[in-house]
Amino acid sequence: MKLKDIAHSRTGDKGDISNISLIPYDEKDYEMLKKKVTPEKVKEYFGEICKGEVVRYDIDSICAMNFVLDKTLGGGVTRSLAQDKHGKALCMALMEMEI
User: Fold this and answer.
1) Which DSSP category does 14 fall into?
2) 63 vs 15 pLDDT, higher one
3) Secondary structure of 40-58 in the HEC alphabet?
4) What distance in Å separates the CA atoms of residue 36 and residue 54, rounded to the nearest whole number?
5) pTM of the entire structure?
6) Strand partners, 64
């Protein structure tokens, strides 16, 4: 199953750092997602573009996670030659991850 089948996401950025939220549609899937979508798996999934550390922040009170991916946006908006300089499409890319 793909993440998009049970969760949704938003993306933000600051310089060369991207953050990607992961929020299950049903709160009962939250614990399972915490076990399956680890920082290591996200780092591996974005391995071609994520050159830094991936940290996950669990927000148990709202059943959500926030992944912070360092050195991911090619130097940031003002330095990157990428089409999606802000990394807004990364949340949609994460939704394609198989779990």
Assistant:
1) E
2) 63
3) HHHHHHCCCCCCCCEEEEE
4) 15
5) 0.89
6) 59
